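REQUEST ID: PR-0412
SUBMITTED BY: lab tech R.K.
PRIORITY: routine
TASK: structure prediction, single protein chain
INPUT:
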Amino acid sequence: MSSGSMDPHQLLTLARRSPEFVGAHDLDGWRGLFAPGGRVEDPVGTPPCTKGSEEVDGLVRFWRTFIAPNRIWFEDRLDRVGKRSVARDVFIHMRMSTGLESVVPAYLLYDFEPTPEGPRIQRLAAHWEASRASKRMLAQGRLGKLTVLASTARIFRHLGLAGGRDYLRGTQGGVRQMGKDRALAFAEAWRARDVRALRALCPEIELDDERLDDVALERATRVAFTLEEPRASGPTVAARLARKDAPHGLGFFDFERGALKRARLYGIAG
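STATUS: complete
OUTPUT:
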C-alpha cells in the first residue's frame, strides 16, 4: 500500500491516538497527527486553530488554552469509519485546573488527507453544545463560576483580545433548534424513502464519504434510522443514527445561511 493510501484501520488508529496524546499531555505527538494546514474546530462554530510553520501556531495556542491546564480523558461510545473520515461518539471527561470535574458529550469528526508520511488529520471538528456546558458549570456554585472566569482569562491570554472575542462569539451562535428540526425532518423523509423530499431538504448527501446519486440514495434508504441525541454546534447538527436491532451510525448535517446543504452519514450502509 502506498504512502498516499487511506486504510480504514489506520484512520481509526490515528483518530484514537489523538485523545491518547491529549491524556498524556504530549503536545508534539498530538500536533504530529495533523497535516500542514490541518485545523481544529472545538467546538464547531468557533474560528479554526490551524497548524502552521511557526513555533507557536494555532494548534499550540489551542493546546495551551484548553488542554495544558486540565486533565482530560475520553470515554468511547461509538466509532464509524468512512473512506476519508472517522466519526466518533464520546464523553469527554475533564478535571479542570480549579479542581472542578465535568463531562461533555460530543461527536467528533476527523477528516484525513494523504501525505508523504501517511494519512494525517486535515480537520478535527468537535460537536458539542458550549452554552449548555457553561450553564452546567455555572450551576456548580462558586467553584463553577471561578472555573468559567479562569477559562475565559486563558482564552484571551493565549488567543488574544480579538481572537478571544471571536471564539466566545462562536460558541453562542449557530443553527440551534431550527437545525435540529431540519435534521429530524431529513430523518423522517429518509424513513419514508422519499428521495424527492430528501433532495429538497438537502442537495448533497454522503454515505461513508461517498456522494449518493438518486439511484444510490433510493437504495440506501432501505436502511431506516431515527435521530437520537442531536447536538447543534455552530452551523452543524450532529446526531446518533439509531437503528432497530442493528449497529447505530452517526450523522453530521451542515447548514449554510439557514439551509441544510450537506448530510454526512456514517455506519448505516446496508
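NOTES: Helices lie at 8-23, 27-31, 58-67, 130-138, 142-172, 176-191, 195-201, 214-220.
REVIEWED BY: pending
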